[in-house]
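Box S1 | Example of a co-folding query
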Amino acid sequence: MKNISILGSTGSIGTQTLDVVRQNGDIKVSSLAVNSNIELLYKQILEFEPSLVCVYTEDNARELSERLKNEGIKCEVSFGMEGLIACACMDETDIVVTAFVGMIGIRPTVEAIKAGKDIALANKETLVTAGHLIMPLAKEKNVKILPVDSEHSAIFQCLQGAQGNRPAKILLTASGGPFRGKKKSELADIRPEDALKHPNWSMGRKITIDSSTMVNKGLEVMEAKWLFDMDPDDIEVVIQPQSIIHSMIEFTDGAVIAQMGVPDMKLPIQYALYYPERRERTARRLDFSTISSIVIDKPDNENFPALSLAYEAIKTGGSLPTVYNAVNEIAVDKFLKGSIGYLDITDMIANAMAKHKLIANPSLSEILELENNLKHDLSGFSTR
Ligand code: NDP
Ligand code: MG
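Box S1 (continued) | Returned holo structure for NDP
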């Protein structure tokens, strides 16, 4: 029986991972980690019986620990970064599902790889900022990085038939988000509640905003570079508003292979957990009799500049992807709290990138220090 640890078990990817575990019935959950949602974590402990959990926030961890003790439930409760790392490195764990949101995932992921755990990677911010450290480390430790992000899972699935032939090009699909077709002048007054409505996918708040600004696709271009060792010039973003084609690869002879399906994250999650096996699923299927056309369009880089900024960041490399990602995390948080406007998100990224003094090959501590400095420098910034 496979043992898994889920980092971020109360989030969108985390809960869907537990759905996959529940539906299959032959995976053991050894540890779970969350930020503060102890109500849901408590229910998950009762159902999946992990021996260790981590609640990052110490007060919430103590409260949960008391409750479990009073009710005679055996499960160790840890907290803080040490606790996250302990959850990621448990002896019995085979696969760590990294479903945290943001750069908090970097250290636990690095430690899990050092401990020889395979990684089912949803937490794209980790690869974006530290891909140059993580991919060589995974190779050295003979650890598999199994993509969970639907586009990267699609590419990974397309590559299964490649027989060692390298793709000439990756065609990364994007839905274009809820504001596709709008001009910058129409985007200025977008409110958080407008941006939190995604047409095809139901996801956590941060990635839903990222999808609307096209930052998510920018992060995914960088994620694809590291996962598939591709030159960014050979990664092309195409808009596929129906989210039926989850991505494609083109070979040197011009053949294009696509992976299609209904938008449903449980498929890539299950594929990562059971790779290379394909398990039966009873979920909805694509019904081609109801699809009259498949729409493909070009990204609108003029009104949504986040994608061009991402190419600039990844082509320059070094610490610039960290600036792109960290400033986006700060800006999305501010936008959700109402202290900046919608267009300020991309403007803040562009300004920070323009000002940044590049570190060519940042170490893990330099990446985390840069994130902290940016948080500090931008803490008082607001436009509203
Ligand atoms: P959510 O916001 O829904 O969930 C985030 C999870 O991380 C929660 O369990 C949260 O705990 C936990 N968490 C956040 N901060 C901390 C912390 N400091 N310490 C411990 N746990 C923490 O995010 P998503 O599931 O949407 O996204 C997760 C990752 O997967 C992101 O990187 C995203 O880009 C990627 N992804 C998501 C997809 C989706 O469909 N949702 C699709 C493809 C990729 P708590 O509940 O206690 O706050
Ligand atoms: Mg995606």
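The first strand starts at residue 2 and ends at 7. The CA atoms of residues 263 and 349 lie 29 Å apart.
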